[in-house]
What does this fold into?
Amino acid sequence: MSKLPPSAQKVQDVALALGLDIAVREMAMPTRTAEEAAAACGVTVGQIVKSLVFTGATSRKPYLLLVSGSNRVNEKGVAAHLGEKLKRPDADAVRALTGFAIGGIPPFGHATPLATYMDRDLLQYDIVWAAAGTPKAVFRTEPAKLRDATGAAVIDMK
Ligand code: 5CA
It folds into this structure.
């Protein structure tokens, strides 16, 4: 197997430390968006895990939402669950919080701990695919394993 770029290797290393048995792979095609990732991985868009960073409007606390690629986050509904409105940090802030650039944000292994929530819809799939640190790196796993490794609370996102 060829050597992974450092950002993808970091995701691989953290996964093993978390007890998540995955193999990060670099695709030949870009996987920057859920649609691109679905095409590259040969799965439906719903099986792609979007790792979206928000901040609490009141607490400024960062939140990570793991969202099915086919869902748009119902920000009002999620805000009601969290007890505060949500804001979208800009790309620089996302990079500072996670240590990764948008398009390759993984579901774990971030520069700062992020309170993590998972879209209930992801649990309907046998296998989901998530970003692994670069705009071409991905891994596949069972959604329940991803939930357990990230400690995510499962909520409705749409
Ligand atoms: N690698 C793919 C599939 S796993 C991926 O990372 N998809 S993603 O959906 O998690 O990341 C792209 C998301 O980043 C977009 O859905 C969008 O919500 C967000 N995004 C794109 N540009 C910006 C920006 N300038 N500031 C904040 N968020 C952005």
Q: What stands out?
A: The radius of gyration is 14 Å.
